[in-house]
Amino acid sequence: MSSLISVIIATYNWPEALNLCLQSLKEQTDTDFEILIADDGSDPATRKVVDEIGSFPVPIRYCWHEDDGCRKTIICNQAMREAKGDYFIFLDADCLVQPDFVAQHRALAKKGHMVTGSRVLFSETLTKKIIAGGVWDFDSFRIHLPVHRLQGGINKILPIFLKLGDAGWRNYREFVWRRIKGCNMACWREDALAIGGYDETLLGWSHEDADFVFRLQDAGVIRKAGAFSTEVFHLHHRIRDQSNDAESKERLNKKIREMNAAAKSA
Fold it and tell me: Rounded to whole angstroms, how far apart are CA atoms 191 and 248?
């Protein structure tokens, strides 16, 4: 796949993390991409990170709206509309990527398919250390991976060293909740826009990413696993309010049941 890729980064009021995320994207082996910051109403400190980023190998554009609660679905849709790429990679600002992140996603990109990747979790201690340092150097970090694993700084190490290519085992036969991470996900622009992007009625903790994946699959897009290829490093942070978790999960399960019933009766 040789098309321009749009990397859409969702962010909210953690400029230190966004700075590190952008540093990791600055060192990509594949530079045929653009970056869109989808800012869900952060204060000026976040915009300042982008304004002061200096020389950067790819274009960066900033999408922002007023802070009115968690409205990730709305700001991500805005970023999708402004994107110029034919292929979208969704990333969160609290994630750092490996130098071949874009290249690995490109290698898995195939018409009629989407990719849901996985993540390596950082401990609170390691996160504080990296944030305090303010610099992301993957080569240096990689050398110390075994130590970080032994000390509990990261939760897994094998997928970082073992990269597997595209194959049929990556394809999901049906929708499953497991391993849907909005912080590492990719699909074709035409497929995302065909289903109307994210459901903008889903606000707060609402499993909007799972809903997005389900509707893509329901439209005939095949989901592929990005494990052992596109892993991101997820910085530790306090989990946001999940008080409506059960309600939002049941809402999606109801939608799945209704759409499956309609398909059977058609």
Answer: 24
